[in-house]
Design goal:
One of its GO terms (cellular component) is cell envelope. Helices cover 22% and strands 44% of the residues. It folds into three domains: 174 residues, Elongation Factor Tu (Ef-tu), domain 3 (Beta Barrel); 72 residues, Beta Barrel (OB fold (Dihydrolipoamide Acetyltransferase, E2P)), CATH 2.40.50.100; 60 residues. The chain is rod-shaped, with a radius of gyration of 35 Å.
């Protein structure tokens, strides 16, 4: 008995009951499209840091924060053409300015509309000169589209990027979704609740099922949130997980903690049944997962069997 206490062995009487049918679905963690975003370069150029430097992975940012600047670098031939055009406009503006000054000196002897026409031409040439001059040294401020955390940073100072290159990925770690897959188009209608295998603090809420096959399967989307005292989701974007989906239909069996199941040398699932003082017998069983912490044994157990519910893995190591 002393050794049992040291190993923290706990048992319970197996009682048959009704339990919801559960299915294990392969899944992965994806970003919530309403709480994540990509930061891309609208134009190509050279990356420069903002006032607070380039953000790194894990840094918290707010919507509208300047993450970096992209200094536009034109093609040499295009740059030469722009400079030539700018020189022409500067010359034309100087001529237009002198014409306006001359006409103003003759005000009263020349029609008013002629002076206004010259002023309009001067304003047009000045605006064109300013636009082309600004394009020669234009900068793009790269801002955060949403509030969250930098999930990935793909740039360093001085890096040359092209149009549409992804510079940063931003996500809110408290708002993620889980995308499971199934070949059964009717499965979503039969799901009553779902959980993440191995993460009992994660609660899943069914959002819907896609109606377009992707590689032969349909995506089922869940919204993930924390339950209990957990403050952060123990999930990362792209992480492969297993979703345990409980159906509305029930099945008869013996509900036990998931840690009651161990494997014998033949790799069969077994539970340990107490047959006497410090005597335990491995019993092969068939079972299904109910959620992240419970299973239901459908074959191999009988009523009044005393099953080890805690410390089964330690008993399995005793030879």
């Amino acid at each position: 008995m002393l050794s049992q206490r040291r190993l923290a062995i706990r048992t319970q009487i197996a009682l048959q009951s009704d339990a919801n049918i559960a299915m294990e679905l392969p899944a992965k963690v994806v970003a919530d499209p309403n709480a994540s975003g990509l930061v891309q370069a609208v134009m190509g150029g050279k990356v420069d840091a903002g006032r607070t430097g380039l953000p790194f992975a894990g840094k918290a940012v707010r919507k509208g924060d300047v993450l970096a600047t992209v200094v536009f670098k034109a093609d040499p031939l295009a740059l030469a053409s722009q400079r030539a055009q700018l020189a022409e406009l500067q010359g034309a503006r100087d001529i237009a300015q002198k014409r306006v000054d001359r006409l103003k000196g003759l005000e009263g002897s020349v029609p008013r509309k002629e002076i206004e026409s010259a002023q309009s031409e001067l304003a047009s040439l000045t605006a064109r000169e300013r636009a082309i001059g600004g394009s020669l040294s234009s900068k793009e401020s790269v801002v955060a589209p949403v509030s969250g955390v930098i999930a990935r940073s793909n740039v360093v100072i001085g890096q040359v990027v092209e149009t549409k290159d992804v510079l940063f990925e931003i996500t809110d770690p408290a708002k993620v979704m889980v995308e499971a897959t199934t070949a059964d188009s009717t499965l979503a209608a039969s799901i009553s609740n779902a959980s993440v295998k191995g993460s009992p603090d994660v609660r899943l809420e069914l959002v819907g099922i896609g109606r377009s096959l992707r590689e032969g399967v349909l995506p089922i989307t869940f919204k993930a949130s924390t339950s209990g005292s957990a403050k952060e989701l123990p999930l990362a974007i792209g992480q492969p997980i297993t979703v345990i989906a409980n159906a509305k239909q029930s099945i008869k069996g013996y509900v036990l903690p998931a840690e009651s199941i161990t494997r014998n040398p033949a790799n069969e699932p077994v539970v340990w049944i107490k047959s006497g003082a410090e005597r335990y017998i491995p019993q092969p069983v068939q079972y299904q997962a109910l959620d992240a912490t419970r299973i239901v044994v459908t074959k191999g157990l009988g009523d009044e069997n005393r099953v080890v519910t805690q410390g089964a893995s330690l008993i399995a190591q005793i030879r």
